[in-house]
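@here heads up, posting the sequence + SMILES for the guanosine-5'-diphosphate run so it's all in one place. Ping me if the SMILES looks off, I pulled it from an old spreadsheet.
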Amino acid sequence: MTTEQIASAPVASPACATCSMANLANLRKLGINMEDADYVVALAGNPNVGKSTVFNAVTGLRQHTGNWPGKTVGRAEGGFEYAGRRYKIVDLPGTYSLLSTSLDEEIARNFILFGRPDVTVVVVDATRLERNLNLVLQVLEITDRAVVCVNLIDEARRLGLSVDERRLARDLGVPVVLTAARQGEGIPLLLQMIDEVATGKTVCRPRRIQSEPPALKRAVAALTEKIQAAYPGLPNARWVALRLLDGDERMVQALRSGELLELAGGVAPTAGAGSEGRAPVLQTEAAR
Ligand SMILES: Nc1nc2c(ncn2[C@@H]2O[C@H](COP(=O)(O)OP(=O)(O)O)[C@@H](O)[C@H]2O)c(=O)[nH]1
Ligand SMILES: [Mg+2]
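bot reply: prediction finished. Complex structure tokens:
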């Protein structure tokens, strides 16, 4: 895979492509200290796809484990260097989706949504590609900066399956790397792709749903505007709006309890905040 395949169109704003995306304040709240790192990478994937094996292959002994702040869910965090740049990599809980039906999913989703990692690597199982791509598409709705790591490629080969990574990269609009992490195969290329996306050398153009019905488009636009007004600085307001329209109870709760406010960087809601720091405008919208 080459840079040119993905970065075919000019970048609208070069600054956005090359500067670190990481939301430092939010990352700190999410328990990540970025003092000794230039970029942060999140590792996402379904359970049992070899995420921890990729994590170990990338970090070696430079890792430590703990819990997510305020949660009993374990977290592994590590570091690596590439071309003189210092990377921090976080192994997210294994999830089938980011729709927040479990604590694990919520942690993974909040990290990608609000921590805004410079690169999100989605590890998928080469022998179960179709099922795994569900999570990839969800991640690509939230972030432009992703690399798909098609792991267990040795198992796929053994089963007579082959994966056309160029085609997949073109269809998804992000780099795709084939790996057999247990053997270390593909890991150097994975690191190179992470670095290219982090530094903006490769600019992703992720595949997104294009054909939103007009009514949905209008509803999303209206709600996004309200969310942005009430929570200035909240990343991914559009995605939050989509989840609210989908009736995502956890998202409604996060808005009501002020959890989202905290993740937005602690900026007070501006749209007539209630006494508990709530945003009444959003409450009524969300309750419908
Ligand atoms: N054959 C093969 N096995 C792998 C590979 N990567 C991971 N595994 C194995 O798959 C199992 C699950 O891996 P793990 O890293 O714990 O998956 P996680 O749940 O996604 O973190 C372990 O037994 C690994 O040794 C690979 O590339 N090829
Ligand atoms: Mg694991």
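MO: Residues 51-52, 94 surround magnesium ion (ligand 2) (CB under 6 Å).
MO: One more: DSSP finds 14 helices and seven strands in the chain.
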